[in-house]
Amino acid sequence: MDRRAFLSWVGVGWLASCLPVAIAACSSRTAESDQKSQKPAEPPRADGYRAVGAVADLDKTGQLLAKDFPAGAVLVVRNPANPKAVFAVSPTCTHQGCIVEWKADQKAFVCPCHGSKFSPNGQLLAAPATRPLRSFSAKIQGNSVLVKA
Hints:
Elements: H1 3-26, H2 31-38, E1 49-54, H3 55-61, E2 64-66, E3 74-79, E4 82-89, E5 101-103, E6 108-110, E7 117-118, E8 124-126, E9 135-141, E10 144-148
Antiparallel strand pairs: 1-10, 2-3, 3-4, 4-9, 5-6, 6-7, 7-8, 9-10
């Protein structure tokens, strides 16, 4: 076997051994996400509210993001004017679908893609978005943050 044939076979072997790794890396599903998806969703309470997190977590991070909420992802923050109340909005910007970020110093949700700005209750403050964020009824009860779909 000459050098060229040997290197060709080594290259083919290397590609064949890397293919499963490349396929696994490109897969959007992982074992962890499979386990999360198998976890049953908490049924709504009689009043229609669902627990999305603990008040301690909200206080620790300044926000709660519930990705598995039945009506889509929900982002919960405390009302800057009344710390005993909370606001819950869809974190998806109405301009081009980017995920907004809560900026406590500005008391607003800001889109990192194009700079749209929304009030804590989701109302539009600055373009280019033309519609407010979808908002949800939310409250604190005991140690839980509850959101109504």
